[in-house]
Amino acid sequence: MTKRLTIAVISLLALAMIAILPAAAITVVPAGETVFRGEEGIDISAGIPVAGTLAWYAPGSTPGTDAPSRTVSVANPLNFYVDPSMEEGSWYTMPVAVGANAAILVADPAIDVQLRRGTTSVNDATVIRGDLLNFRITSNLDAFANRGAPSAAPTRIRVTDPNGNVYTSLVGDVAGVATTFDLTATGGNTDVNTNPFAVAAGATVWDTAAAPYSRGTYTYKVDCNANGMNDNYDVTGKTVSKTYSVTIADDDLIITSNKDTVVRNTDFAITIEARPSTDYVLWVKGTSSLAAADVPAIKAGQQGVALDAGVGSAGRNAGLYTFAAAQTVGADVPGGLAVGSQFYAMVSTASSGKRTVGFSTDQNTKDQSFTIRTDRYVAPGPSGDYDEVKVRVEKGDVTITASGDRSYYIGEEVTFSGVNTDSSNVYLFITGPNLANNGARLTDPSLAVIDTNAATFVERTVRGDDTWEYKWDTSGAPLDAGTYTIYAVADPRDRNNLANVKYATVSVVVRKGFVSATASQAAVAKGDSLYVRGNAEGNPSPGVAIWVLGRNFYARATQTVEDDASFEYELTGAATQGMASGQYFVVVQHPMGNNRFDVVETVVGGTTFANMLGIVPAVGIASTDYFPVLGPGRLQGSDAAEALIQLMNNPNVDDTYTKLTFLVEEPWIRIDSIADKFVGSTFTISGTTNLGVDNDLLVEVTSSAFQPTDKTVSAEFSGASGTVKVVQGDAGYNTWSFEVDATGFTPDEYIVTVESIEADASSTTTFNVLEGAPVTQPPVTTPPVTTPPVTTPPATQPPEAPETPGFGALIAIAGLGAVAFLVLRRN
């Protein structure tokens, strides 16, 4: 014991002697030696003896020949400051002679620190309490050793514990004796004169088992303030290192899972927290009686995770590890020892002491609890150091929903969607009237699905969020109207084999498409537009075909069907202008389930035919499969319409249709009868017309007395005029109306003229405006007064006037009224 203490004392004395360095030595810089940015108060007189100027030359320049790239004045060579802005490289005393030596060499300082366990860095890692650690400093500060003998760069190391306490010294070990190492700039243990520099070389600077050091995370860094360089140039990586951490942990082995329960076809992860950089055996315990497909698998290719690669590999050593008496890991998993087995592995923990290992499951993984075990590897085992965690695998679920109200017309697109947490794909099939009992293919319901044959099902990949979607185009599907059931299954199994498979169903109603239509009016005036409006259910992509047939007239057009199933076709005013008066027929054709028109228009030899799709008409040869609509021998009017309907009624044609008629007439306007009106009244003039809605009509109401007069006679216009629009009627024809205010009217006969602004149609009538009607006063109670009888001349009744009395008659009537008034007043 005495001998060990003697050796320790001698070692400490040696270290102390090395540590005692003349501080003044590091301020004196020999000529041409290195100085560092941020240093102050240094003596560079060996390179520039008196006050003067230093010159720096950029790369490629020749000192003494070229002009300096930069100069710095030196007021006192014995007290020089290296400004951090000074360029790195050689600086010369001016004037500079060709071939002159540099006065100083400016360098950018660099410093870093590494905490090591032996020769392994544990920067930002985890160590086990009791590990012996030391520091190594890497820098370019070893240049200080050239400033005198002995000389070095004084640095310091500071360690901060989890509570924020800062250590400037650490308890270490020298030859088994606990020793405190001073890590300050004056302690002598961190004076850098080599690169790299081992702090207290040959000794353990930090014994993590020492009393002061509890579990937790510690941080540390090194800095150098030689000649004030850190004060003047405080830059991380330059005069101070970055801050690192180390976690002191107990020697525990802990295994955890990120999920206690997983739905199969879902991954999970196991995390091992144990000794840093140590090998551990990991396996799915007690699964040797299960099939390989039943057991969660360790994912291949993970960092620090070695699967069995054959004899001599780390993975094979894991399989040979004995965890209990005569029990090896390889014999405890499905398939035993096997190259590439995914049920056991050798796991190497990182420097932090942790390693996460990913496991995968699929739709075949058995729904039960599995035990994942890890042992610290010691050949051949057991080490006695292990931990276990349980993970339960459960069956997933499958759902399906249909877009909309689950009632669709053939030709519409249906979106099926849902969730599948049980497998990576979902398989769809359909059952219903006249389909295979075990299920039919959605893409072709006439064909049955085949159990386990995925190619006969609609297969959709499940997204990362467990959802799936499929758009079913029902156009062309050979389905009858009725109710059908769509199956979504986790595996490609038909309806007769769903006992052990997750699945879901949704019922949908399929309807045959249809078309309905109406004409905007029963009769259309020549030059007006006629609109055919309606609905075509079933989302026909070609739209609907509009056939118009009449005397010496034929037209066919297709019209797009909107998303709400509506359509509108305009027979333009230009078309009706040239049509003969009479009855016309409209047939609206829907392509139905096959989404194509089976009766079409074909032109052969200048003759236009209506014909069955695929039939080529022959000019001059009659057939039940076609007929001419334009050209020699064409059918017209009702004959053409009937022939077209017969083609669409053919059993080989699935198209449906609706038919309607309308009349083309010469345009006309009618004025309803107008009774006598009074001056000051307000009344409406109305009428009917076969002109279309929104046509503009000019209405004029003028006095029959409005005529040229002598310029010496005063005369005023009496009447009204304006423009009105035709509105929809409810009795077969459209209507119009015009409001008249007769306040400014004079008693007279008035002429009403209504004229279409665009069409060649007008109408005229007359009516009378009389003197204002007397106002009825409320009765007043007065004493009875005897009034002598009043004799009034007999009033001559005018002869029965024609339908409209003239202006003179009205004057006569007014005169008689005045006489009666005077007689009454006299009495």
Automatic annotation (TrEMBL):
Residues 31-231 form the DUF3821 domain. Residues 776-802 have a biased composition (Pro residues). The keyword DNA damage does not apply. Residues 773-804 are annotated as: Disordered. The chain crosses the membrane at residues 806-824. It comes from the Archaea. InterPro entries: DUF3821, PGF_CTERM. It comes from Methanocalculus chunghsingensis. It holds the Pfam family PGF-CTERM. Keywords: Membrane, Signal, Transmembrane, Transmembrane helix. This is DUF3821 domain-containing protein. One of its GO terms (cellular component) is plasma membrane. Residues 804-826 form the PGF-CTERM archaeal protein-sorting signal domain. The keyword Coiled coil does not apply. NCBIfam families: PGF_CTERM, S_layer_MEMAR.
